[in-house]
Design brief:
heterodimer; A: mainly alpha; two-stranded antiparallel sheet; two-stranded antiparallel ribbon; 11 helices; 4 strands; B: alpha/beta; Rossmann fold; 2 domains; six-stranded mixed beta sheet; four-stranded antiparallel beta sheet; 10 strands; transmembrane (chain A); membrane (chain A); High-affinity branched-chain amino acid transport system permease protein LivH (chain A); cell inner membrane (chain A)
């Protein structure tokens, strides 16, 4: 029983990382209808920026987290402006292929610049104490990951629902031309979406580095794809869907590992993807949109 | 107030507006009538900046606005209620109205305009917190009009406000359009329902396959045989 709860806690903290990454996928999809396959690589870049901030600049964990988020926000906007914006009116498949190209470019660009060797993430940057509640031991790291992810998600909800830019983002994602008629600058709104999504990816990168204790230039691929599955699971384009999908996927993975199938943990995500595409293609939170005349 | 000189607009190879000229004076209701696909919505989209004319000029209060981005045009004082209402169904009535005032910074003025819109459309006040996708078609039309008014426009473009509404509601909407005119807002009304449109308009233009084929005061056009046969159901 204790073992099960422990695995559940593990799953939730891993899932909250997936959720952070899935949010970027879903927000970008919601606004420009593009699966940004380079998103996982932004996570990797975030992990490295965090790593260098800690080791070279000698910064603490939280300043490193903030620097990583800010740099990734800028990086995300650059990707959008350089690679995707010129294709705004092109076919969706052209944009999708470009996204894959951007992804490969970032991965191998990073290898070209710093080499392919992995780095060991410093693991003693935050003094962490584990918590023990009636026999269930929860690591301090899990708690830290959860606290950071949940605070970021609350902050995101606040931005999306209460601020002007958040309302503009929702308007543009619902109806781009109608949003233009309100005087909303669609280009800036799309950039803001990439900035926010990429900042979350940057945070996820630093946390992921801490969680796996090892980073390398191709580390973004697997969590990127899993987060994509999480976004589809919740219903792509739907923000609460990405959060739920991420948490659910993390828990499923941990439970499969706990049941003795640790070799299967990566495959589980794809089984989930196949099942959701067969039985509920719009995702858990998706509904069939009907138009009112 | 608005003066359009000989504009040509293309959708790819399709020549959608062929040398259209039109003028709207301060305080008028001008209506543009024509069949489906004649170019009515194209003209409104061009005025709002969603489409760029290939040539020709659009002057709003003697400033050139042809080809300018929509946000600049909204800022100058032209708002549009698009065809099919296009309310943000995923947002509440209140949020839709806030988005109408997106470019404004005068909080006090925005609050006043909220009150004005609610006076004009009491139904919207009752449904303030409701998701706008759950509103009826007529209520959505009211919301789309209220949202456009929140920008405090001097020229309001209305694209087929009667579309898909029950006759009684159409009457209500047209009564409200006249009320909006009373407050000093100039209106360009695009309609297929030519009878209703001519009944409240001061002047009218008739558009056919991208060309203006007739214009005049509403009385003149209501009495012209050609117009009566083509748009007003004969007699």
């Amino acid at each position: 029983m204790e073992q099960l709860i422990q695995q559940l806690v593990n799953g939730i903290s891993l899932g909250s990382i997936y959720a952070l990454i899935a949010l970027g996928y879903t927000m970008v999809y919601g606004i420009v209808k593009l699966i940004n396959f380079a998103h996982g690589d932004v996570v990797m870049v975030g992990a490295f920026i965090g790593f260098y901030s800690i080791t070279i600049l000698d910064l603490g964990f939280f300043p490193a987290l903030l620097i990583s988020m800010a740099s990734c926000a800028i990086f995300g906007v650059l990707i959008e402006r350089i690679a995707y914006k010129p294709l705004r009116n092109a076919t969706r498949i052209a944009a999708l292929i470009t996204a894959i190209g951007v992804s490969l470019f970032i991965e191998y660009g990073t290898i070209y610049v710093r080499g392919a060797q992995p780095e060991a993430y410093p693991d003693n940057i935050v003094p962490l104490k584990s918590l023990e509640i009636s026999g269930v031991k929860i690591s301090g790291q899990s708690i830290l990951i959860l606290v950071i992810s949940i605070s970021l998600m609350i902050l995101l909800q606040f931005i999306v629902h209460k601020t002007k830019i958040g309302k503009a983002m929702r308007a543009v994602s619902y109806d781009m031309d109608a949003a233009r008629l309100m005087g909303i600058n669609v280009n800036n709104t799309i950039s803001a979406t990439f900035a926010i999504g990429s900042a979350l990816a940057g945070a996820a990168g630093v946390i992921l580095g801490m969680y796996y204790t090892k980073i390398d230039p191709l580390m973004g691929i697997t969590p990127g794809i899993k987060a994509f599955v999480a976004a589809v699971l919740g219903g792509i384009g739907i923000i609460p869907g990405a959060m739920t999908g991420g948490l659910l996927l993390g828990v499923i993975e941990s439970l499969v590992s706990a049941a003795g199938g640790s070799l299967w943990r990566d495959a589980v995500a794809f089984v989930v993807l196949i099942l959701i595409l067969i039985f509920r293609p719009a995702g858990l939170f998706g509904k069939n949109v009907r138009e009112k005349v | 107030m608005l003066k359009i000189n000989d504009i040509n607009v293309y959708y790819g190879n399709i020549h959608a507006l062929k040398g259209v000229s039109l003028e709207i004076n301060q305080g008028e209701i001008v209506t543009l009538i024509g069949a489906n696909g004649a170019g009515k919505s194209t003209l409104l989209k061009t005025i709002s900046g969603l489409l760029k004319p290939k040539n020709g000029e659009i002057l709003f209060e003697s400033e050139h606005v042809a080809g300018k981005v929509p946000q600049l045009i909204v800022k100058r004082g032209i708002s549009q209620v698009p065809e099919g209402r296009r309310v943000f169904a995923n947002m509440s009535v209140e949020e839709n109205l806030e988005l109408g005032a997106y470019l404004r910074k005068d909080k006090k003025g925005i609050r006043e305009d909220f009150e004005k819109v609610f006076q004009l459309f009491p139904r919207l006040q009752e449904r303030r917190k409701q998701q706008s996708g759950t509103l009826s078609g007529g209520e959505q039309q009211m919301l789309a009009m209220g949202r456009a008014l929140m920008a405090r426009p001097r020229l309001l473009l209305l694209d087929e406000p009667s579309m898909g509404l029950a006759p009684l509601l159409v009457k209500t909407i047209f009564r409200i359009i006249e009320e909006i005119k009373q407050t000093g807002t100039t209106i360009l009304l695009v309609e297929q329902n030519a009878n209703m449109a001519l009944s409240i308009a001061d002047r009218a233009y008739v558009i056919e396959t991208g060309k203006i084929v007739a214009s005049g005061t509403s009385e003149e056009l209501s009495q012209s045989d050609q117009i009566r046969n083509a748009y007003l159901g004969g007699h």
